């Protein structure tokens, strides 16, 4: 059943979880995937960044944020004084690439998010980050359990909490590539996250 699957996931160690995800067939996104994208970085990292889902390059390489949006994310990490693989872990809401009928990236459906979210929730429980940055609407509303209609602008500017862990919402780096004028607001969001970050 669904609840026994979730409780099984909730008891997994990191390695078991990784193996489980690699062979997951819980939703249609498993069809035609090249790779699952579990995440990258230090599994005890104080900073957790959560995106939406793998795109074209991420599906091929099995690593999150390796394309153009990833370079902007790396700049955001640098602004916080952290580097990929050091004090940060990077993951997505869904671990397989969602595509539309034309083979283009699309946001994951509610069903796909529901099927995949237990994996990320287990990753969060194991990582125990000190701060979570939700990159864009899909990450924010999925993690906070809010309506998918909620605009990112309405979730920015304050520290939310997820199981006691502070969570700050900012724009998705792919959005910032299309709308660079909003980078100033993303910068404010990162400052807010630094303000609410407490090591231990
Ligand atoms: N966009 C995302 O949300 N995640 C990735 O891993 C790459 C692009």
Overview of the molecule:
- This protein is α/β, with parallel strands linked by helices.
- It has one domain: Uracil-DNA glycosylase-like domain (Uracil-DNA Glycosylase, subunit E).
- The protein has nine helices and six strands, in the order H-H-E-E-H-H-E-H-E-H-H-E-E-H-H.
- Strand 5 and strand 6 form a beta hairpin.
- It is globular.
- It binds uracil.
- Uracil (URA) binds next to loops.
User: What would CATH call the class?
Assistant: Alpha Beta
Low-confidence stretches: none
Strand content: 5-15%
Biggest sheet: strand arrangement: 1-3-2-4-6-5
CATH architecture: 3-Layer(aba) Sandwich
Quickly count the domains.
1
Structural class by helix and strand composition: alpha/beta
Number of helices: 9
Radius of gyration (Å): 16 Å
Helix fraction, binned, reads 40-55%
Concise account of the structure shown:
This protein is an alpha/beta fold and 200 residues long. The chain has helices at 2-10, 14-22, 56-61, 68-79, 110-127, 137-144, 152-155, 173-178, 183-196; strands at 40-41, 47-51, 88-92, 131-135, 160-162, 165-170.
Keywords:
single chain, 200 residues, alpha/beta, Uracil-DNA Glycosylase, subunit E, 6-stranded mixed sheet, binds uracil
């Amino acid at each position: 059943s669904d609840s026994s699957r979730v409780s099984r996931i909730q008891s997994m160690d990191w390695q078991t979880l990784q193996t489980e995800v690699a062979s997951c067939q819980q939703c249609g996104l498993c069809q035609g995937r090249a790779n699952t994208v579990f995440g990258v970085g230090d599994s005890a990292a104080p900073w957790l960044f959560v995106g939406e889902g793998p795109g074209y390059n991420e599906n091929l390489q099995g690593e999150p944020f390796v394309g153009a949006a990833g370079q902007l994310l790396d700049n955001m990490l640098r602004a916080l004084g952290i580097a990929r693989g050091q004090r940060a872990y990077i993951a997505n809401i869904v671990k397989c690439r969602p595509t539309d009928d034309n083979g283009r990236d699309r946001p994951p459906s509610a069903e796909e998010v529901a099927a995949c979210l237990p994996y990320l929730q287990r990753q969060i429980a194991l990582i125990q980050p000190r701060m979570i940055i939700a990159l864009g609407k899909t990450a924010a509303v999925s993690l906070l359990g809010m309506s998918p209609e909620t605009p990112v602008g309405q979730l920015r500017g304050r520290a939310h909490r997820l199981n006691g862990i502070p969570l700050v919402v900012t724009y998705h780096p792919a959005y910032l590539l299309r709308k660079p004028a909003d980078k100033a607001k993303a910068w404010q969001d990162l400052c807010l996250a630094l303000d609410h970050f407490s090591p231990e």
